[in-house]
Amino acid sequence: MSRHAHGLRAWLLQRISAVYLAIFLVYLVLHFIRFPSPDYEEWRAWLGGRAVGLASAGFIVALVIHAWVGMRDVLLDYLPHSGLRLVGLTLVAFMLAGCGVWALSILLIAGMQNGS
Amino acid sequence: MQFSIYRFNPETDRKPYMQEYVLEESAIRPGMMLLDALLAIKAGDDTLGFRRSCGEGVCGSDGMNINGRNGLACITPLNELKTPIVIRPLPGLPVIRDLIVDMEVFYRQYRAVRPWLINNDPVPEVEHRQSPSEREQLDGLYECILCACCSTSCPSFWWNPDKFLGPASLLQAWRFLADSRDQAANERLDELDGPFRLFRCHTIMNCVDVCPKGLNPTRAIGHIKELMVKQSF
Questions:
Q1: How many CB pairs (< 8 A) connect A and B?
Q2: What is the fold, at CATH topology level, of the domain defined by A3-113?
Q3: Does the pLDDT at position B82 exceed 80?
Q4: How far is CA B93 from CA A45, B34, B64, B85, in A?
């Protein structure tokens, strides 16, 4: 992207991630209609599958990006003090990164257990 | 007919208050506009301050908050308003006196989009030519009268009036981006980028709702984003 775009890039990422989230959520709903209330082993096997694992990892990444842009918007809108804004943005970044890494590690473990 | 009008004189009042006025039914004529009623009230109390000029929705001087909604007093029919009619200054701008607000921040944002044609070609002898379809692109944009009803009804402008350009200025930004004679599209787009100037717009569309000229700043903002995306890839 030629334009060094904190505004445009964030806005585009928000929209692209929204499309992915919407498609994946439709898939999730359809899946759970077809296979309701799985037990733990079924969950693990399902999430450990390569295609579902990768798609779920994409979902988590898209969710983190989408949540980051949304939370950033809220903080930029409502926190007029630049110092507070920086603290807020840092806290949100750490929280979202932590949640993302945690969720991805769960997928990774499920995948490795499936592979072993 | 009852009115409740925001009053504040910084020289004598410690804080703003609402003053009640009653306009006798005999003073109300059919087809009367709110501005006529305000002038009648002012005839009885000349301390009441508000701006007005043309009285026909052309100059944009008498923008105010009428029963919770921004509009021009001169083209707001009195008989369409619920009583008591509550009148406040345009929200989000510093009050100078009563219904008169300080528009400096609004004009500063307007100046920031360089609302004039930038064309480096030699000045033509007669005029810069435009085809009818190129001229058509400016319809719905050039009609803005800068009354500030839109920008002062925009929550994003309330929170960041010094950083977010606001719907009125962004409509004008698109008016020059869309002009076939303008040659500064790239610089204009660069100036609009960043998290605040354009991208604080969350398509709330209060601007479209209140515009007394029926213009659509949200659509203009959408066109700017579209052009940015096209030019970026």
A1: 50
A2: 3 helical TM bundles of succinate and fumarate reductases (1.20.1300)
A3: yes
A4: 60, 22, 11, 21
Chain A contact present for B198, CB below 8 A? yes
Nearest Cα residue to B188 out of B204, B176, B206: B176
Q: Does the ipTM exceed 0.85?
A: no
The answer to whether the CB atoms of A80 and B199 lie below 8 A apart is no
What is the pLDDT, as a whole number, of residue B68?
Answer: 97
Do A7 and B199 lie within an 8 Å CB cutoff?
A: yes
Q: Which of B156, B192, B195 sits opposite A10 (nearest CB)?
A: B195
The pTM score is 0.91
Nearest to B44 by CA among B69, B68, B20, B8: B20
Residue B122's SS3 state is coil
> Which of A1, A6, A12 has its CB closest to that of B195?
A6
Q: Which two tokens stand for residue B120?
A: 């480096």
Q: Which residue from B123, B64, B107 is spatially nearest to B88, judged by alpha carbons?
A: B64
Q: What share of chain A is helix, strand, coil (3-state, %, to 5)?
A: 85, 0, 15
